[in-house]
Amino acid sequence: MPVDASGPLSRPLRRRGFLQAAGAGLLATALPATAVHAQSLAAAGFGPEPPLMHGYSGPQIKAWRPETDRHARYLRSRVPLAARIAPFEPTQARRGLDPRPRLAVLANDYVQPAWETEGYPYGPVAEAYALRFWQYPDVYASWHGLPLDGRHTEPVPPYGLLNLPNPGYTDAAHRNGVLSLGCWFWPRPENFADIVERTPQGTFPLADQLIAMAQHFGFDGYFVNQEATITAAQARLLLEMLGYLARTAPPGFHLQWYDSLTVDGRISYQNEFNQVNSPWIVNGGQRVNSSVFLNYWWNSAKIQASATHARSLGLDPFEVVYAGSEIGMYRFAQPYDPRAIFPDGGAPRTSWAFLGSEMVWYTVDGDKSTLARQAPAYARERQLWSGPAEDPSRTGRTRQPDSGRPLDPAGWDGTAHHIVEKSAIGRLPFVTRFCTGTGERFFVDGVQAGDRPWFDIGVQDLLPTWQWWIRDGAGAPSTAIRADYDHTVAYDGGNSLRLSGALGPSASAVVRLFKTRLPLTASSTASLVHRGSTGSAVLRLGLVFEDAPADTVWLNSGAVGAGWSRWTGDLGAWAGRTVAAVHVSLLAGGSGAPGIALHLGELRIADAGPDPAPGCPTGFAVERAVRAGDAASVYLTWDFVPDQVARYDLFRRTSGGRRWLGRTYDGAYCVSPLDRAGDGATTVLELEAVSVTGRRSCSATTELTW
Questions:
Q1: Which residues contact 69 (CB under 8 A, 6 or more apart)?
Q2: Of the given ranges (9-23, 195-209, 275-289, 452-466), which has the lowest mean pLDDT?
Q3: How many CA atoms lie within 13 A of 483 on its CB side?
Q4: Which of 631, 661, 650, 666 is nearest to 75 (CA)?
Q5: Model confidence pLDDT, tens digit, residues 469-526
Q6: Exposed end of the chain (fewer CB within 10 Å): N or C?
Q7: What pLDDT, in 10s, does the model give residues 150-195?
Q8: What local confidence, expressed as pLDDT, does residue 44 receive?
Q9: How far apart (Å, rounded) are the C-alpha atoms in residues 295 and 276?
Q10: Coil, helix or strand at residue 9
Q11: Residue 521 DSSP SS3
Q12: Which long-range contacts (CB under 8 A, 24 or more apart) does 153-157 make?
């Protein structure tokens, strides 16, 4: 992607030159980790040779088989793509906002130590950025490139033509109804003629493999960043290959084309959708790519012309045209104003796209090794998505963007100012424990079960739709109560949702949490798991119904005490009605409520009735273990049974009970590191299947022999 000379060269853009200049050389066989790499893994807390993501060259793609890709079994996403509920304007944070524009986000997935060359789906540190705002993107593409397998530690490692999306990010994206894409990047030190090879039968071997890899690894398509000149003949073959890919891929497969290459093989950024680049979307009446990510140097006239050109081809501009903003470069001071896409007082024109939204993490300097020290990064994340007030119902800039102050959010409207929040909460049971996907310890059923830091966005729960939309009893913005994630205590996972503050006499605060479409039955119930102090305030659960969206039905949610307790309320009186939003509130008594410090550990809306525990897992075994002294990376497999199972939890048996090791929705997991920790000749490992509502199976066991 081109560097706009009118702006400063940010960290991600400096990396572009590095990626493009990566040296030549193809990997014939998997190479062992070097001693230097082993030392860096140990310093980061990993065991030896954990599952490591890598890039793939063109020849490697064409020869790819899951049986010969050494970590292919351990880098899959198995979470199905959730369906999103229909837009419902009465519960939007911004009333009247048009729901047609979509958002594509092209970004690094995890930003963690050594993120320039390494990628892990999960690991034993808390210092890893985990996106908390899936309600706004429709498409998430992993953009950063990765070295070829076994080449990570070379001074200038060769990068692959292709990098796959991190499976943890795909899990989280799919759980929220977001498409997850891998990334194609050219130039690379290969022969492009091999990439676009066509057989005498008219097939394209590389295209067939791209489909096979996406199906195995569980993602939804590719972002195609073809950004170097090729011959006109090669460009024609690429056009034909992408059309072949679109025809032969399964339904829902998404190809997003970057506005760079012309059909005769030249690089020419159009900065609009026009007759030069539209053949990459539809050519001769056939679809080639699903959408186009426009280069960044557009204006109001170009955006309007893009929408007009799309319609002239019989295309929906919101489905096809995504106008790009360089978030990583310009941050909150965008010189190409998004209001050209979303004109004040007028209808939106196209969809929108981001490059580099992970800037919220790396632009915060200093130590981020603990969740407390990461707070400024997540505040900046709320500013990016919810607007400068960190409230999606109060978006909009308070001054014009200032290129001299790119990290001042006052010049930024907020993503929520233009893009309607979306939700995948459309059927019962709905259960969330508010887990963000990182932590410094791990809790199971309210009891600490793990004492080491960890990251794994793949186990992230459905998080609140609005972060944070808080009002007083009269409907005015309130700062009396603050909402945030608390990683010191949890009911399940690594954190709870904490509400803190103080209320005056008879005052109240409403925290709007989830956009939903949940049809209730005569057996439906709601429950909250909570602990802490509310003073004299009453905790209430609020339901907004689709047929009366201006009203909220409040249910008192029971006494809150020092330990975790569960309140359950019967919703049968509202059978046949549909819950469109879920809130909580605190209502103070006549003397006020100082010192509120309430933790919500679980929110559940479900139908009562049979709730069986999953069957005991079968086939649990150690596939292999890589040892280094008294530590190992242990590769475990079992029979994956997706029905009735929401996740699998792994533990080690100790003399004092057991310790949590990991969680996944899959039939394979690598524990890295597993320390011998005083065990004798063997370490006993346990596996449990867990249902959506938290019912646990009996434990399957296996042993690692040291």
A1: none
A2: 9-23
A3: 25
A4: 666
A5: 999 999 999 999 999 999 999 999 999 999 999 999 999 999 999 999 999 999 999 9
A6: C
A7: 998 899 999 999 999 999 999 999 999 999 999 999 999 999 999 9
A8: 73
A9: 13
A10: coil
A11: coil
A12: 153/33, 153/34, 153/36, 153/37, 153/117, 154/23, 156/18, 156/21, 156/22, 156/23, 157/22, 157/23, 157/117
Q: Which domains does the chain have, with CATH numbers?
A: 53-417 (3.20.20.80), 430-607 (2.60.120.260), 621-705 (2.60.40.10)
Burial class (CB in 10 A: 0-12, 13-18, 19+), 347: exposed
Of the given ranges (108-117, 118-127, 235-244, 357-366), which has the lowest mean pLDDT?
108-117
> Which own/partner contact pairs does 482-486 have at CB distance under 8 Å and 24+ positions apart?
483/511, 485/434, 485/436, 486/599
Cβ neighbours around 206 below 10 Å, total: 21
The pair of structure tokens assigned to 457 is 């966005």
- Residue 27, pLDDT > 50, answer no
Q: What token pair was written down for 447?
A: 């009891």
The mean pLDDT of the chain is 93
Neighbours of 677 (CB within 10 A): 11
pLDDT tens, residue by residue, 129-151: 999 999 999 999 988 899 999 99
**Residue linked to tokens 């005991």:** 616
Single-letter code of the amino acid located at 263: V
Tokens read off for 372: 């407390």
| DSSP secondary structure of 480-527 | SEEEEEETT--SSBS-EEEEEEEE-TT-EEEEEEEEEEEE--TTEEEE
Note whether 564 and 591 are within 8 A (CB).
no
Q: Position 428: which residue type?
A: L
Number of residues written out for the chain: 706
Q: How far is CA 622 from the centre of its chain?
A: 30
Would the pTM count as exceeding 0.85?
yes
What's the rounded Cα separation, in Å, for the pair 114 and 144?
13
Find, among 368, 488, 379, the residue nearest to 125 by Cα: 368
Closest C-alpha among 697, 698, 701 to residue 643 = 697
Instruction: Give phi and psi for 574, each to the nearest 5.
Output: -110, 20
Bridge-based pairing of strands 578-587 and 508-519 is antiparallel
- SS3 state at 223: strand
Give rounded-to-5 percent helix, strand, coil for the chain: 20, 30, 50
Which amino acid, residue 199?
T
DSSP codes, 582-616: EEEEEE--TT-EEEEEEEEEEEEEEE-S--PPPPP
